[in-house]
Specification:
By secondary structure, the chain is of the alpha/beta class. The chain has one domain. The chain is about 50% helix and about 10% strand. The chain is built from nine helices and four strands. Helix 3 links the parallel strand 3 and strand 4. The protein is globular and about 50 Å long. The relative contact order is 0.16.
Length: about 190
């Protein structure tokens, strides 16, 4: 039986091109290279407030998955208290506890992709990490320059593949990804 993981983003349309390969790599690092990774597409979520409001229903609907990963943007906020409550509620389900792990990208998921391309950014990495609107201020221009508008994700998948070719570098530049990997590995059977 295969190990099934549901990724719950705040925007599945574009974040999926970044998160699906990243989660697959994390699972491979944890010894689950054949795990099936599914991006949440039902219900279709749009924005962090929307995904947070639907999270209890999502947990119920997808309780049959082996692992649920809520991967959203930090947007300059400390979301740890919310995440602890979400994870505890999922684990306390009466019918069957659900393993939910939450992680916020500093500052936005797009920064995880950019971590593999620091030499092309034209600014210090610390500035990229501190930018609460990194998607609008840095990523969109980077994608226009280095992406491929002819592909469904605008080149996000190819750029993320490049980032993952230096996976250790990604973990160093984005310690929340290293922490996510540790949590995933620790929680696997």
């Amino acid at each position: 039986m295969s190990f099934q993981v549901l990724v719950i983003p705040e925007d599945p349309t574009y974040n999926g091109y970044i998160l699906t390969p990243l989660v697959s790599r994390i699972l491979a690092e944890c010894g689950k290279a054949k795990a099936k990774v599914k991006m949440l597409d039902n219900p279709k979520v749009s924005g962090i407030a929307h995904v947070f409001s639907l999270l209890p229903d999502i947990v119920e609907r997808y309780a049959h998955f082996d692992l649920l990963l809520l991967l959203v943007d930090a947007d300059g906020r400390d979301r740890s208290g919310q995440f602890e409550r979400f994870e505890a509620a999922a684990a306390a389900r009466l019918a069957r506890p659900v393993r939910l792990i939450c992680c916020a990208a500093v500052q936005e998921v797009e920064a995880w992709l950019l971590a593999g391309h620091t030499a092309r950014l034209g600014r210090p990495w610390s500035e990229v990490r501190a930018d609460v609107s990194v998607k609008e201020n840095i990523f969109e221009g980077f994608l226009s320059q280095f992406g491929d508008p002819r592909t469904p994700g605008g080149g996000r998948d190819a750029l993320m593949k490049e980032t993952l070719s230096n996976y250790r570098g990604l973990l160093k530049l984005c310690p929340e990804v290293a922490e996510l990997q540790e949590k995933v590995c620790d929680g696997l059977p």
